[in-house]
């Protein structure tokens, strides 16, 4: 899961500088972020939100946008459409902070334009790291994510995207297949079962997300996630599988 970064800054040179810092950060954290939009015009930001409906976007906003909308005005409109938004003000105006409290836009950070470049870049990186962590934590608390670690990187996969887990050919590792990707990480199926995400163990070797089953063949004991992707369930799991599907109001019998 990656989060869009949106930059709105009316000064072209500062916009380019911000873009460069963000793109350099994305090079090393590409699985978490993507540059969704950079613009000098708040109207383009609002159009982007209406078209793409981000949930958990990261917004770098200048306060003075040389527009009838200020950065705080824009932040209010962003907050109304993207409730998980992480808003970061890039400004020289020290009086912005109390105004944001009064307007209830809940910014993540205020970054001073006038500081040394290295410090400025470090604050951008820190803000992105905190934004990713807080969005991921919020999703996990809501029970919508499965989290795992590969090396030093933490991955947070939306439950809606998960198809199934099964053992890897490499000992002590699991394969996680999603709608658009495949991951391998160290873990046990017994640990996955304890996540309380509504997953179901259909056999000794496979745990599935019932929400993404599209067809069940009870004669061959296969569950299908699409025309080409299927896994077999154990003989004793058929009855429970029927109950789960029925409770969800789904009719997938073949």
From TrEMBL:
Sequence ranges assigned to domain HTH LytTR-type in this UniProt record: 146-247
Q: Which UniProt keywords apply?
A: Activator, Cytoplasm, DNA-binding, Phosphoprotein, Two-component regulatory system
Which SMART domains does the record cross-reference, listed alphabetically? LytTR, REC
Q: Name one GO molecular function term.
A: DNA binding
Asked if RNA-binding is a keyword of the record, the answer is no
- The Response regulatory domain extends over 4-128
Q: Which Pfam families did the record assign?
A: LytTR, Response_reg
Q: Which domain of life is it from?
A: Bacteria
List 4-aspartylphosphate occurrences by residue.
Answer: 62
**Signal sequence residues:** none
What this chain does, per the entry, is described as:
Required for high-level post-exponential phase expression of a series of secreted proteins.
Protein name as catalogued: DNA-binding response regulator
């Amino acid at each position: 899961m990656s989060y869009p970064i949106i930059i709105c800054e009316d000064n072209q040179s500062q916009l380019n500088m911000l873009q460069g810092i963000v793109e350099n950060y994305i090079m090393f954290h590409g699985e978490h972020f993507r540059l969704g939009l950079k613009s000098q015009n708040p109207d383009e930001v609002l159009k982007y939100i209406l078209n793409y409906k981000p949930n958990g976007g990261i917004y770098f906003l200048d306060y003075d946008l040389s527009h009838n909308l200020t950065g705080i005005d824009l932040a209010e409109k962003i907050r109304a459409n993207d409730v998980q938004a992480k808003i970061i003000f890039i400004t020289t105006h020290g009086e912005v902070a109390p105004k944001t409290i009064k307007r209830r836009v809940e910014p993540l950070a205020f970054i001073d334009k006038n500081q040394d470049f290295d410090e400025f870049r470090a604050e951008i990186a820190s803000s992105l790291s905190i934004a990713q962590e807080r969005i991921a934590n919020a999703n996990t608390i809501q029970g919508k994510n499965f989290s795992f670690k590969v090396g030093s990187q933490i991955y947070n996969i939306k439950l809606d995207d998960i198809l199934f887990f099964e053992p890897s050919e490499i000992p002590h590792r699991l394969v996680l297949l999603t709608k658009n990707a495949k991951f391998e990480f160290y873990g046990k199926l017994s640990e996955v079962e304890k996540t309380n995400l509504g997953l179901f163990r259909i056999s000794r070797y496979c745990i599935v997300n019932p929400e993404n089953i599209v067809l069940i063949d009870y004669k061959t004991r296969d569950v299908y996630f699409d025309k080409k992707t299927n896994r077999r369930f154990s003989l004793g799991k058929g009855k429970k599988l029927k109950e789960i599907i029925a409770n969800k109001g789904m009719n997938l019998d073949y």
